[in-house]
Each structure stands twice: as structure tokens, then as C-alpha cells.
Design goal:
The chain has 156 residues and is of the alpha+beta class. The protein has helices spanning 10-23, 34-42, 94-109, 123-131, 147-154; strands spanning 2-4, 49-55, 58-70, 75-85, 113-115.
Length: 156
Amino acid sequence: MIRAAQPGDEAGLLAAITALAEYEREPDAVDNSVAALTAALFGDDPAVFAHVAERDGAVVGIAIWFVTYSTWTGRHGIWLEDLFVYESERGRGYGVALLASLAAVCVNRGYARLEWTVLDWNAPSIAFYRSLGARPMDEWTTQRLVGDDLAALADR
């Protein structure tokens, strides 16, 4: 079953986020918590959302996303921050169903885009995305400021 995340899903979401970090070779990078997820997803004015794949009452896959805006199209879109299905659950259609649920949100709300990044070494995921019709944006390079560099720019 694919559904919007609801209160009580936070531990399952965090476990999947942690498993994704391990898969992406960054096992110590997760600094999230159940409390932080509760505030972000279910607080007074959430700016991040999630869908879960659930089987037998357990979260077996996640899609965490937020709304973007394209100045070129003049319309909103969705940025998929994380898509993850446990390896033991892959091949059951959960990844397709999670992406389809976000595509449906886009279509129903008149959003122009569904976008995400994928690690260049992650050949299975790249092949999966291509099979759905996703196209690479090879000419674009993601940029990021964090830590001291972020603070230094803020002080300018």
C-alpha cells in the first residue's frame, strides 16, 4: 500500500533514511531524529512531505519530498529528496508506485516537474529511472554550502 506518511510513521521513516545513508556509503551522515521528523512533517506549517510503502504494517519504502517553483514555467514542482525501498522488498513495484504517487500529486496540482538527483555510480537506480522515462540533466551540477562555508557566507 502506498499512502501519505502519518504521525506514527517517523521511526519507520528514520530507519529507511538511515538504511539509505548506508547504501549511499554515508552511514554516519544522518543527524535526523524522530522528533525532528515529527516537527518537519506534521508541525503547524510543514514544508516537507512523505509517502510510504507499507506492507504488513511496516514501512518498506519511502519518498520524501518538498515543493519547488520554476521561474521558467511559472509553476510549482516536486523535488524528491529521498526515494528508498529496502533491498528485500525491491522488485515488488514499490519504487514505481512511490514515484507514480508523486507524479499524480504533480498532475493533480498542475505542477510542471518531478525532479531528483541520483549518485552517478548508482547504476541500478539510474537504469530504473530511465525505464520510467526520466532524463538526465547532465549539464547541471548540484552546488552545496554547509558548515563553516555556509556560516562564512551568512556573515558577509
